[in-house]
Every structure is written in C-alpha cells, then in structure tokens.
Known about the structure:
By secondary structure, the protein is of the alpha+beta class. Helices cover 20% and strands 36% of the residues. The structure holds heme C.
Amino acid sequence: MPLFxxxxxVALPVRFATMVVALGxxxxxxxxxxxxxAARGASVFQQNCSACxxxxxxxxxxxxxxxxxxxxxxxxxTDGRRYLTHVLLYGLNGKIEVAGQPYNGAMPPWAGxxxxxxxxxxxxxxxxxxxxxxxxxxxFKPYTVKEIAAQxxxxxxxxxxxxxxxxxxxxxxxxxxxxxxxxxxxxxxMKLDVPLHTAVPxxxxxxxxxxxxxxxxxxKSTWQGANSAHYVALSxxxxxxxASGLKTGAVYVxxxxxxxxxxxxxxxxxxxxxxxAPNGKLGIAIGAKHGVAVVIDLRRVKxxxxxxxxxxxxxxxxxxxGKTAYVTLQGAGAIAVLDMNTLTKVKDxxxxxxxxxxxxxxxxxxxxxxxxxxxxxxxxxNLVDGKMLKVIKVGNGHGGIxxxxxxxxxxxxAIADHIVSIIDQKSMKVVKNIDVxxxxxxxxASANGRWLYASMTVDNNIAVINMHTLKLAGQIPAxxxxxxxxxxKGND
Length: 492
Ligand code: HEC
C-alpha cells in the first residue's frame, strides 16, 4: 500500500505558440544544465551511495530503501523538494515504510563530507536516473548549489528530518524507540542492570558529533571545543585525547586530566580516523579527500608529514611496537602499510571480498587484522602472508570494530541496523547478534574485556554489553547528540 497521498498536480494549460517556443528554449537550457549536474552526480552516487542503495538505486529490501521508482515520489510530496535536501544534508533516523517494506536504519548526514555542489548533483542524478525522470513533474528545475547552501543553514539532524518526513507524509508511525524487534527487551533494559561504576570502571570518551562536545563516562561531563567531533583516540597512558572534526577539517588535542583543549590544527581536508602511537608522541589523522595520513607531533600539536596513502583512506591502527601503521583504503579495497620510522608507505595489501574497508583492529599477537567494511561485512586478514582468511556477514551499513581484550571475541557495530555482532576469533563465526537499539557505530570494550560499549547514533545513548553473558546490560543516556565513536582507557 502506498504510504503517501500525493497532492494532485494540475497540468499547465498550453497557451500561445510563441510561449511554447520560448519555454522550449528554456527547457533546452535547463536540461543541458541538469544533464551536466546529473552526470557529475552519477559518480558522486557510485562513490557514496551505491554501497547502500545499490548501483541501480534498487535498494536492499528491509535494509536500504530503493531510490529507483521512489525518489520522485518523495520529491512530489508537499515540500518534498526541500525534504530531499535535508535528507542529504542531515541524514534520516527513524522507522519509515517504502513500498510496503519497513526500514529502520540511519541514513548518514553528508554535510561536511560532500560539497553543496555534489549534493545538488547527486539529487539531480537520483531524480533523473533509472527511469525516474519519466515521473518527474514537467516543470522540474535542477537543484542548484545556492539552494543547498541555503538549506545547509537550517542546522538540523537526522531526528529532525525524520520529524519533517512524518509531518509531510501525514502518517503517524510509532517512535523509533518503541518499534522493531526486541524493543520491549530494550525498553526493559534502558536502565543498567549493574551499578554505573561497575559497568564503566575506567573513563569512556564519546565523540558527540551534533553537540560539538566530547562526553565523558561515568561522570557524564562534557568538554567543549571539538566542533563536530567525529573520531576520538586516546594515548596508551590515558593522558591525551585526539579528536577529528567532521565539518571543520580540524584535529583537536585534549588534556584528559583537565578536559581542556591543548591545541588544534586545521588540515583543509575531510578528517576521518585518528590514532595515537603507542609511545604517545605522534598521532595520525586521516585526510580522506587528499588521500593522506597526516602525522602529527602531539606535544607541539604540529604537522610532521602528510604521507600519501591511496584512495579515500578512512582509519588507522598502529602495530604494538609502533613501527608500522595500517590504514584502511575505502576507495581502493586495500590496506596501506606505513613505515613509521621513515614515514613512508611501504605497500598495499588487497582485501578481496571487502570492497570498502572502513575500520580496523589487530589481534593481540598482531598477526591478524580484523576489518569492518562499509556495507555489512568483517574480513579477517592474515598479515603474515597477506591472504584474506574469511569474510563474515554482519549487520547493515558501516561501523567500528574491536578485538576485545582477552583474545576470545571481536565485536562490530552496524550504523544502519540494531545489532552488535560478536564474532568468535577462532572459528571466525558470529556467535551472537545482540539487539542494542538503533544506529550502533563505535564499539570498544573495557580494558579487561568485561564490558563492551557501543555508541548509538540514533538512540543517543551508549549501549553496554556484558561480555560474560553476551547480553545487553542496559543503556547509558549520552550527554549529547549523535554519539559517533568512543575511546576507552586501556583499549584504544
Ligand atoms: C550507510 C548506508 C547509506 C548510505 C551510504 C546512503 N544511504 Fe540513503 N538511506 C539509508 C537508509 C538506511 C535510509 C532510510 C533511513 C531510515 O530508515 O530512516 C536512507 C534514506 C535515504 C533517502 C530518503 C528516502 C525516503 O523515503 O525518505 C534518500 C533520498 C537517500 N537515502 C539518498 C541517499 C543518497 C543520495 C546517498 C549518497 C549521497 C545515500 N542515500 C547514501 C542508507 C544509506
């Protein structure tokens, strides 16, 4: 059953022949413009959207809604033109229904990742590709960069866009928290079933992207100064925290004892993952746009070197001795290996079966790499011979990954899903998918491996999993919005 009642559009009566000619000319002009914009949008789509919405915009039933045969329907609802700009800029979180299929994922926000021009281009592409053009209103004018820039001032988030969608579509589906399988279970567990200090024995630092803060558990205090906080990393001794700013292109360095910013650097890049070397002297920040690993002197908060690493790098991990750094190349289907003495790239290791390696961690002996991709898989790479041992299906979308101290399990989040998957390291099989709520992205265990924390981007809390029972112990409300990533003392 269709979800929306579209306002009926009255076709414009054709008036004078001269008018028609004039309009015809205009149409040629605007179509030419649309074609170039849409043509550019095709590559924006292939690189950023097709992993979820699929190459032909056909979607994946139950996981990612189709855009083919559907995007124009959304355009045609009252205020749909503006709605689509908000979905792209700010994302969408909440339970929706498309062509009778429920979806309860999270569409990531793109403001800061894609330029306003790229957002206009990809919308023009999505609305005209795969036969969608045929149902577009005849008076459709392509989105312009100006229009996107104007909407970018609205400062919304995925929850606000969901509220807008609900309002415009005139339906009243239930709130996210109360829907979906396991909701009753989750509601019952909203409170932790153990004391907070038991579940959080050492500080957990949370990047609160939409509040521009770092949140600290168990105290629930917040630190200011990390605008659009994205990834965070802690030094081995816990004294220093490094954070990236998604929209600012900056790297921030905090003193964890005082919660004060020690310094920041602007990288003129889209800054993704950050990591601190075991000796605490150097950090790496990934510049995704320019394909570099930026090495930073943490004491002086200065750039030491920008190492070219490859296409669309995402996150980094040091070997235990700090001599090597590994970088996921989301755009190349490979892991770049860096020599941290010479600060150069040594080689790439291909990741067959994982098209877009996203986040990574190492086994305790450093011989295996556990890689989370962008679309719901974990790959196990043997670093001794460079062979991919196994690719494992996990929850939808991308997420963090953690080799849990103790050597038994690996955990991974799934931002477009409700589950944290627990994988047995030996058998390389998922032993449990734990229903944690909506939008789990970052995952990190306590240093003793007893508790696992997941940052819930949609529900705005930190889910805590008891690693003895492999059950949800409850959720701690996040002290801000869009908890994206977390760092834990003793296990970074
Ligand atoms: C990580 C997966 C993922 C990626 C990447 C992604 N999307 Fe989405 N998208 C989703 C999910 C999931 C939803 C539905 C969200 C929900 O259930 O609330 C969605 C919803 C949408 C919608 C709204 C549909 C509606 O019915 O309201 C549009 C439009 C859209 N995406 C376009 C895009 C475009 C264009 C891109 C690339 C720039 C993109 N998406 C990238 C997962 C993704």
